[in-house]
Amino acid sequence: MGAPPKSDVPVITPDHLPEADGLIFGFPTRFGMMAAQFKAFFDSTGGLWRTQALAGKPAGIFYSTGSQGSGQETTALTAITQLTHHGMIFVPIGYTFGAGMFEMEQVKGGSPYGAGTFAGDGSRQPSEIEMAQAFHQGKIIATVAKKLKQSA
User: Fold this and answer.
1) Reduced to 3 states, what is the DSSP secondary structure of residue 28?
2) Long-range contacts of range 142-151, CB-CB < 8 Å, 24 or more positions apart?
3) Which pLDDT tens digit goes with each residue over 78-95?
4) Closest to 140 (Cα-Cα) out of 16, 24, 19
5) What is the reported pLDDT for 126?
6) Helix (H, G, I), strand (E, B), or coil: what is residue 3?
7) Inter-residue contact 35 to 75 (CB < 8 Å)
8) From CA 76, how far away is CA 64, in angstroms rounded?
9) CA–CA gap between residue 111 and residue 100 (Å, rounded)
């Protein structure tokens, strides 16, 4: 939708998803929900849904919005339905990021549902605290995936 292609970023297909022990999906928000391109990606996972190939996999969500109040939490809530239909286990970060969840001195995205950032007009890059929250979320998903794999 007008964004330049990023040729250095690997592109996956739904067929790659079952190979993962855990998944973290990240997408921009459009009017309080995931962007249509990402919804189209999920729509293309019908074969995986039919066989429940992703059932039991831990999954998280992170997001980017243009401004505060642009739907970070509603984006997560509407995306959880995709995970649920696949039988995936939604793993939120809750308030485990500690004091970073209550930061009020700087602009910071994210919520108990997952890490987030405010992109503004697209020129703003994630802040150090937003990057730390995203790294924290990755550790949580990896820890849960490892525990599930060990118990299998």
Assistant:
1) strand
2) 142/22, 144/22, 144/58, 144/89, 144/91, 145/21, 145/22, 145/57, 145/58, 146/21, 148/21, 148/22, 148/56, 148/58, 148/89, 149/21
3) 899 999 999 999 999 999
4) 24
5) 93
6) coil
7) no
8) 11
9) 10
